[in-house]
Amino acid sequence: MSRTIEDRLARVTFDDRGLVAAIVQQWDTREVLMMAWMDAEALRRTLTEGRVTFWSRSRGDYWRKGDTSGNVQYVRGAKLDCDGDAVLISVDQIGPACHTGTHTCFDADDLEPVAGRDAAP
Amino acid sequence: MSRTIEDRLARVTFDDRGLVAAIVQQWDTREVLMMAWMDAEALRRTLTEGRVTFWSRSRGDYWRKGDTSGNVQYVRGAKLDCDGDAVLISVDQIGPACHTGTHTCFDADDLEPVAGRDAAP
């Protein structure tokens, strides 16, 4: 693999908005904490600064996680998926990941699926 | 929470393409296996059939994971995130999750970030 930051960014398939989906996972417990979006500059900062930066579609600005809330995400690892349109960021999350105060952004709304074969009831 | 399938689907914020990001996680090891896309019908099938169905943007068709490859994903759980634009599907994955044959879709491309504070070297 090429190791310069430009070569790494060039492997990402940004969508027609210039964004890639970023899945954030706690490095040790492997909980999925949240999903947000990065443009090339947000990903560049995330890969080089040791802190996770997103692109806020609603505010149209960069958003370094924890700068306002204190709930910092320290980078531990980052992987690109097979078709280049999702990155999996491994972090050490300080405090709750969700702006609602819950530990993860997936804690509040259970979609209650029917379970498949062999699943516990 | 409302429990009818229509009420559950109505809580999802589909994007301007009618899609929601679906993160798929192995239920016991908590590995993130892949990310793909669902429209309302794919999510409806996923929540009601016990098997994971995506919408393929490249093929413009539904894609029930494992129908061709045998690498089925049996549904264990499904959560919606705080702003409704990502679902976290917990599954029991049969065989490799990635069409390239790797265990997950995030196994092949390390973006080699600089680690943040307190991270192991």
Automatic annotation (TrEMBL), chains A, B:
Domain of life per record: Bacteria
Keywords: Amino-acid biosynthesis, Cytoplasm, Histidine biosynthesis, Hydrolase, Magnesium, Metal-binding, Zinc
InterPro entries per UniProt: PRA-CH, PRib_AMP_CycHydrolase_dom, PRib_AMP_CycHydrolase_sf
Domain Phosphoribosyl-AMP cyclohydrolase: 34-106
Binding site for Mg(2+): 81, 83, 85
Cofactor binding note: Binds 1 Mg(2+) ion per subunit.
Compartment annotation: Cytoplasm
Required cofactor(s): Mg(2+); Zn(2+)
EC number: 3.5.4.19
Recorded metabolic or biological pathway in which this protein acts: Amino-acid biosynthesis; L-histidine biosynthesis; L-histidine from 5-phospho-alpha-D-ribose 1-diphosphate: step 3/9
Residues given in the record as Zn(2+) binding sites: 82, 98, 105
Reaction equations catalysed: 1-(5-phospho-beta-D-ribosyl)-5'-AMP + H2O = 1-(5-phospho-beta-D-ribosyl)-5-[(5-phospho-beta-D-ribosylamino)methylideneamino]imidazole-4-carboxamide
Main location, first listed in the record: cytoplasm
NCBIfam families, A to Z: PRK00051.1
Family: Belongs to the PRA-CH family.
Physiological role: Catalyzes the hydrolysis of the adenine ring of phosphoribosyl-AMP.
Subunit field text: Homodimer.
Protein name: Phosphoribosyl-AMP cyclohydrolase
Species this protein is from: Microbacterium awajiense
